[in-house]
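Course assignment 3, question 2. Fill in each field.
Student: A.L.
Task: Predict the tertiary structure for the chain below.
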Amino acid sequence: MSRRSADSTILGYFYQFDHTILEILRSADTQTVHVERLEDIDVEDPDSVVAIQCKYLPSKKYVPSTIREAVIDMLDDYLIRCQQDRPVTYRLFSHCDGPPDRVAQLDLDGLKRLLCFENHGARVVHYVERGITDDQLSGFLRQFQLIPGPVFPDQHAEVLESLRKLFECSREVAELLYYSNALRVVVELSSSADVNRRATTKRQFINLINTEEPICSAWYLRLKGSKAYARLMKSRIRGLDLLNPQKERLIYIGKRCMSAYQNEVVVADFIGALVHEHYELNRSLWNTKPITVVVDGDKQTVDRIKSLLIGSGIDLNDGYETLGFSPRAFRRPPVINRTGNRRAGQRISLASYRVRLLRAETYQAHRTEIQAPDSAFVLGHDDPRKLFDSQRTHVVPITLLELSVASSILGGASH
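Answer field:
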């Protein structure tokens, strides 16, 4: 598959995901939306069903061959469901290149022509092979709608605007928080092994996406890219003032992140960069609190990271972890020397330590004895909230494992 073809295929998935989000948000309280059940989207209420297929084919013209496969799928489904009590409306929502003049108003003859085609050199007349009568074809046409869809960016903008209005937030928050959560929920629904679990109501969906922090899936990162994700995350962190230097800030480097690198030097450099950003001598104000870093690694790995930091001139506090952990010593603030005058703002010229650093095993064993952080930034952990007991901790999952991207998110956002 060519790169252009692959990109088009991926956009097709996102186009369907976005349209699914819109259909859920537009649904009534009495309706249930099924994802990837019989059609791409089925919107049901007690009296009727709307079965929707969604296609994004920007490089293809609106001609019968372009929509033939989708129409045949819907026709075959109609023949099964037309005997049911609830009427089914079949809606083909598609974007192609140009207007749908040749297929927008399908009549019986046009439908029959569409159902005649070549397959591996053999002529196929689908309605003859299936024994479909004219009355059945006409019945299908009465229930069939072809709706030309907008280009991908326009529909995506409509999704973001709908979320912005629903949650009364900025577009940035709608994009990073609510859209990332909405995309994750739709993907999870569509991929559930149990078809009966691929359903939601509007209220259930809103409750699922209305969370404190974005839980970004690989799909979201694939759509937005790591740079855009980092930019949005950094802006949100700054807007919520989560890296305020007077607050207790914790960075948790999870096992998945450590496994991705298996290199103590890279992790030590990452921690060192954070220290220089958030507790730099002769620049940080006297009341700045040092960050706490928790590393989910074995003793040998974490000891090596500590040695590298000390060797680079960064003194640390580990609460005597290697001798016998002391929560009291770990909580103790650094002893500092100040420089400058009070009016201009006194700076830290010397500190007994500049970062707290622990293994995850030690932190979890003693976390009730350690002051809960105001904000915690978690890399490479599947369930970040479970790491912290206090409800006062604002937990920020950082989905990407790349420490360089995490550094750009967490750097430069302090005061």
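Instructor remarks: The chain has 16 helices and 16 strands. Residues 1-6 have pLDDT under 50 and may be disordered.
Grade: pending
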